[in-house]
Specification:
six-stranded antiparallel β-sheet, 14 strands, alpha+beta, globular, four-stranded antiparallel β-sheet, 34% helix, binds ligand 1OR, single chain, 377 residues
């Protein structure tokens, strides 16, 4: 029971990370030959490694209060050595992905309607085409649970992935309670995505209803798109200092929630005074933040890669405090809608609020008076 007695052989973090990264690249790219691909992959990795020994990155884990500072951005090479978004335990056993036909579980109209309602907010399904979505819905089957039922046991092989229609579910790692789902959300995707044993135990606290999907369907229809998306945003999410307050697992969920948007030079992204629908992380390019002042707009800040904006109105529940424009070419952004913001960024709230306090002191410096940008707190 104690964490000491359950200690196994120590697997170095770096080994886990390298193997995991390799496996993900392999699964995403699906090359014909494992060995050839491995030689190519590791040769490239070695060539890209900085030639002078290892630099100390022990400060990587410290949270920077001034997280919007440009210097807080990590050097590009460091990102490969940073703790990966995907750095969970991984069992690099060969994949048994097979090609059988997708199962179809007939449903009544009432059942299908409930299922559609349950999956509406499942971020992993967002990028599916209509046809794929229908296959997914067909393949899902209902499972009723009673209080105390174990849905998943840590260490088991992954069979199904679950979407919650109702019920409260508690998650345990090594008998320690680490998470609770309340009538919404999904679980059981990790073992299927990364082909590793179940990372946690999930137990029903109340009676409830789950929608399950078997491993085969999950891997055939969702694996690629889910991997791609998590992989695509990995570097961005690692480069935003504020997001270090999140656990790796929480950052993966954040990757599922992001939507890419691009803006041309000069285009307005946010208009001062508008109602807010979400916030943005900068993947590429720079933006100019401007405030209305005596019938003109005054630039108050410029933000670049790894920085974020549009959080203020979400935190304060007020209209947009400033306008934001794309500058210097095409700007690539990752957009997080307000619902996902509220669900996923709770652990970053203190850091965001500290940065907002910073805006207030800047406001006084720039305009000489307080413009009430945050007064509702
Ligand atoms: P799975 O297939 O590994 C157990 O089976 C499931 O528990 C897992 O997929 C996730 O869907 C779910 N870390 C890992 N798995 C979690 C976590 C979690 N929470 C829910 N699951 N953490 C909690 C983060 C708030 C991180 C703990 C260090
Ligand atoms: P928002 O949702 O209000 C506009 O939409 C965004 O501009 C805002 O969130 C912030 O993310 C971003 N004061 C207010 N908002 C700022 C500021 C800022 N800088 C960036 N934003 N100040 C600049 C401090 C260097 C203080 C005002 C002078």
């Amino acid at each position: 029971m104690s964490s000491d007695s359950s200690r196994r052989i120590q697997v170095p973090e770096e080994l886990k990370e390298v193997l995991l990264q390799f496996s993900i690249s392999f699964l995403v790219e699906q090359p014909p030959d494992v060995i050839d691909y491995a030689v190519e992959y590791f040769t490239k990795l070695q060539a890209e490694r900085p030639s002078v020994g290892h630099t100390d990155n022990s400060t990587d884990d410290q949270l920077s209060v001034n997280s919007q500072d440009a210097d807080a951005e990590p050097p590009v090479m460091a990102s490969s050595r940073r703790k990966s978004v995907f750095a969970e335990a991984y069992d690099p056993e060969a994949d048994d992905d097979d090609d059988g036909a997708t199962a179809v579980f007939p449903k009544t109209d009432e059942q299908r309607a409930r299922l559609v309602e349950s999956v509406k907010n499942v971020l992993l399904f967002r990028s599916l085409e209509k046809e794929q979505m229908n296959q997914v819905l067909d393949a899902m089957f209902e499972r009723k649970v009673q209080p105390g039922d174990y849905i998943i046991r840590q260490g088991d092989d992954g069979d199904n992935f679950y979407v919650i229609e109702s019920g409260v579910y508690k998650v345990y790692i090594n008998d320690r309670h680490i998470n609770t789902y309340n009538h919404t959300g999904l679980f059981g995707e990790l073992a299927l995505l990364y082909n590793m044993p179940r990372a946690a135990t999930v137990q029903a606290e109340t009676s409830g209803l789950l929608w399950a999907m078997d491993r085969q369907t999950f891997r055939r229809i969702l694996l690629k798109s889910a991997f791609r998306k998590r992989k695509m945003y990995e570097e961005l999410l690692n480069s935003v200092p504020m997001l270090k307050a999140l656990q790796n697992y929480e950052r993966m969920n954040l990757a599922d929630a992001l939507v890419s948007k691009s803006y041309d030079n000069g285009e307005r992204i946010i208009k001062q005074g508008d109602a807010a629908d979400g916030m943005y992380f900068i993947e590429e390019g720079t933006v100019s933040v401007r405030m209305d002042q005596d019938d003109a707009e005054v630039e108050i800040s410029q933000l670049g890669k790894g920085q974020y904006f549009g959080e203020l109105a979400l935190v304060t529940h007020r209209p947009r405090a400033a306008s934001v424009y794309a500058t210097g070419g095409v700007v690539k952004l990752a957009f997080l809608d307000v619902k996902a913001f509220e669900r996923l960024l709770g652990p970053c709230m203190d850091i965001m609020k500290r940065n907002i306090d910073d805006y207030e002191s800047q406001l006084v410096k720039i305009f000489g008076s307080k413009n009430n940008i945050t007064d509702t707190r």
